[in-house]
Specification:
The relative contact order is 0.26. This protein has 4 helices and 4 strands. The protein has a single domain, classed as RraB-like (Alpha-Beta Plaits). It has 135 residues and is α+β, with helices and mostly antiparallel strands.
Length: 135
């Protein structure tokens, strides 16, 4: 049962970066992509007072673009660990930003804006974030 809930949360987190969602406003809203995923995490039973390992996903056409983005990602906040890998599907490259944090809406919304800026500057796409349930 917990595995099904975890899968739901991961899928919802990936959908948080989908381009068919309404554009984010400058102020964080509980109805934006991040708020939706946070609500789903809480409903699935995750302890929202504990740190989660958040993985932010950015995709790029080339390894060089992903590496350039990884440098910028690493400079965003103390504790973000950037990694570059070939994407599991297709020819793209994944820049993964890993940050252990208590998932707070305002901080996630601010990071989303930063990741979208980094992705755009390097001809890539921010594809949302994911995490596992924390009990």
């Amino acid at each position: 049962m917990w595995f099904a809930r975890l899968a739901l949360v991961l899928v919802a987190a990936l959908l948080a970066g989908c381009p068919d969602k309404p554009a984010a406003t400058t102020a964080a809203s509980p109805w934006d992509e991040d708020g939706t995923v946070l609500n789903q995490l809480a409903q699935a039973g995750s302890n929202m007072e504990e740190a989660h390992v958040i993985q932010f996903l950015l995709y790029f056409p080339t390894e060089a673009q992903a590496s350039a983005a990884a440098k910028s990602v690493g400079e965003l906040s103390a504790g973000i660990l950037p990694e570059v890998h070939p994407a599991k599907d297709g020819d793209d490259w994944l820049c993964l930003g890993i940050l252990p944090m208590v998932p707070e809406h305002a901080e996630l919304a601010a990071l989303r804006v930063e990741f979208k800026t980094i992705a755009t500057a390097n001809s890539g796409k921010y594809d949302g974030w994911q995490t596992s349930l924390v009990e």
